[in-house]
Amino acid sequence: MGKIKFGILGGGGDSLIGILHRVASSMFDKYELVGGVFNVDYQENLKFAEQLDLSASRVYENLDTLIQKELALPESERMQVISILTPNFLHFPMAKSLLENGFNVICEKPMTTTFAEAEILHQTLQKAKTVFAVTYTYTGYPMIRQMKHMIKNGDLGEIQKVDAQYYQGWINPIIHDIEKRSSTWRLNPEKSGISCCIGDIGTHAFDMLEYVSGLKVESILADLNYLYSDNKMDIDGTVLLRCSNNVKGVICASQIATGEENSFVVKVYGKKAGLKWEQENPNYLYLMQDGKPLQVLKPGHEYNSDLSLDGTKLPPGHPEGIFDSMGNIYKGVAKAILKQPYNAAEFPTMIDGVRGMSFIEKAVESHTKGNVWVDIHNY
């Protein structure tokens, strides 16, 4: 069977997310990048495509032209899946158009800019019956998948607490400069949605806790930080969680944690044991038990689950990273598109995207109403 023909919207130039998706899609020889719309400037679009050695005939001026020209091709030649790597405000209209025209979609998070848009997109997908994935990238790490397996297997016993901390410092030099903070799209509600920090990295933490624990967050209480009165977007926040099975938890997210790079730490504690994982050291999963030495679990060993081993590409002792994590998500999507057997945990779905949007809006609502408990939509 030939490779899945693959297109990209956005991600041109030196975009980190563009490189990440292109490398990830190439890992298992499942996809062939054939074209897309990489830049709003058509000439820059063509130059970038030339760098990638793509035919100019499959590089389009805009999404409408892409859809029209691709649908005019024989089905065996047209793009089967398209990845959306644009700023947040374009996710919804692009994804909706693609679904309505029968394309499979891989979309960066947050999936939309509002919960209402996410609901519309969910309804559109139900009619389209295609494959839709949201790239909560870190769920692709082998040891995160091992963490999920061990919790589901009961190795921790009854879950007592969930905890995620996601600290970055990148916005610190921007937020204190009035010109810079008014010019970046991340702090512009029209382009980014109603939240910066919670929408960008807090939603990763929310999805991750639900992914590994198998619990659902039912209600939250948020306290967000904006620093300046003219800044309409949170850049730091703490969110208390009430989950299913009466489990409590917390998410701490910050983009003004001076000196931090991408410190994402996930912890789940049960009656029998606890597990801890750190994104900056992703090949180590720490198993903690009362009265016993700390155990360090690593990828590639036979003691890991089938789900973890399926996402491991190298022998033990050979570090894997974020490209591999995203590659595992693309691998799962490929199985779904090709109608091959796959584990539901292999890629985040539309439902994850919808719940993520509910979390973002409810966090802002909780803060705005004076730090009160609010319920997450039940999806």
Keywords:
Dihydrodipicolinate Reductase, domain 2; globular; 5-stranded parallel beta sheet; 13 helices; alpha/beta; Rossmann fold; 9-stranded mixed beta sheet; 2 domains; nucleotide binding; Oxidoreductase family protein; GFO_IDH_MocA-like_dom; 379 residues
Could you explain the architecture of this structure?
This protein has about 375 residues and is of the alpha/beta class. It has 2 domains: about 5-135, NAD(P)-binding Rossmann-like Domain (Rossmann fold), CATH 3.40.50; about 140-310 and about 350-370, Dihydrodipicolinate Reductase, domain 2 (2-Layer Sandwich), CATH 3.30.360. About 35% of the residues lie in helices and about 20% in strands. It contains 13 helices and 14 strands. The protein has helices at about 15-25, 40-50, 65-70, 90-100, 115-130, 140-150, 170-175, 180, 190, 195-215, 305-310, 320-335, 350-370; strands at about 5-10, 30-35, 80-85, 105, 130-135, 160-165, 215-225, 235-245, 250-255, 265-270, 275-280, 285-290, 295, 375. The strands form 2 sheets. Strands 13-12-11-10-6-9-8-7-14 form a 9-stranded mixed beta sheet. A 5-stranded parallel beta sheet has the order 2-1-3-4-5, sandwiched between helices. Strand 4, helix 5 and strand 5 form a beta-alpha-beta unit. It is globular, with a radius of gyration of 21 Å. The chain starts with a strand and ends with a strand.
CATH class of the largest domain: Alpha Beta
Helix share, percent? 25-40%
Number of helices: 13
Biggest sheet statistics: 9 strands, mixed
Percentage of residues in DSSP E strands = 15-25%
| Oligomeric state | single chain
Overall strand count: 14
Number of domains: 2
The strand order across the widest sheet is 13-12-11-10-6-9-8-7-14
Average pLDDT level: 96
At CATH level 2, the architecture of the largest domain is 2-Layer Sandwich
Domain GFO/IDH/MocA-like oxidoreductase: 144-275
Protein name: Oxidoreductase family protein
Organism: Polaribacter dokdonensis DSW-5
InterPro entries: Gfo/Idh/MocA-like_OxRdtase_N, Gfo/Idh/MocA_oxidoreduct, GFO_IDH_MocA-like_dom, NAD(P)-bd_dom_sf
